[in-house]
Task: structure prediction
Amino acid sequence: MLPISAAALASLSGAVGRPYRAEWSNDGGRTWSACSLQAGSAQINASRTSQTRYSGQATLTGVSDGASGINAISTNIRLWQGLQLPRNDPIWIPAGRYTVGRPRTTRTGIEVELAGIEDEIRDAGLPTARTIGPGAARDIVEGLVGEALPGVPVAWRPGVKPDTLVPQVLAEDTRWAVLSTGTDSSGTATGIVDALAAEIFADARGIITVAPVPTLADPVVWRIGRGAGGVLIEPQVEQSSDGLANVWAVTGDAGSGDSVIGPAYAWDDDPSSLTYAGPDPIEDPLAPERLGLWHVRLRVQRYTSAVITSLAQAYTVAQAKLADSLGVQYSLSLTAACNPALEPGDVIEVETRPGVWEKHLVDSLSYTLGAASMSLTTRTTARRL
Result:
């Protein structure tokens, strides 16, 4: 969650003012100029599974279009949601830094589509295949980002090992694929951040961020209760097995003829889980039949990366991929008081039934600048029904 004071967090369900503001820049964010927003026009969407973490739309007023104004080539937009507590100055919380798409002049202003600045890294492709590494992940990632977005910082959150050695790899895919989850012509993964058991995205401040894959073991950042001050409508429960995997096998193979690393295995070993894979599906695959565990079903995924150089690294990646592919069987869609500091990947507690609290991971959220409510989609670990 973005920084927010305890007083501001406690005020979200009460009579708190919600001002908002916007800024634009045509020089890569070196200077910013204020502009206005048409009331109710700025829609913010944030999702862990989208190509850009933040996206949206807005109608800008008080600014012109063209080369010296809003355009689809050089313009970046920053949005801010304010919280106005009684007898205090507004607290400003960033709501995304965006590239501008399809600006359209109307009677009320300039309508724009907004996409996170990850798109600028994608568009700054590699003109030719190049050899990358060997070197520390920090140096390579920050170098690739800096070529596409000069002056934009890269933040490494706790839990990621930025000094991990990246071996020499041939980058023949897009720049973003090399950074994130790309593959070579043989299908072997070459994404640097993926091999760190992490994910890369532009956060709400427009900082390129490398963060661990979130899990339900992360600290709870917000509790949403029923009634006044909590969930505004009944949570809608949905079950799905899309993307489910309860066994992962991860291998490091640079394709150079050197020894293969692994595979390292990770599986759901919780007997109370709906996705329990058995006591040891690798060494003792017949245990479920022998022990009468008739409910056990295996869903196995494999992952091979040219960037994994040790068995410990392979095991860390396997654990991260397992955590990210469990829990999709039980999700919530709900509307709550708008908390603009909430981010995709945050862990919250939700009162799903009166007196029953569950930990959920936020997959996506959306809200309108100035509005009192927001929509959330969450998921939790699959469980016995």
The mean pLDDT is 89.
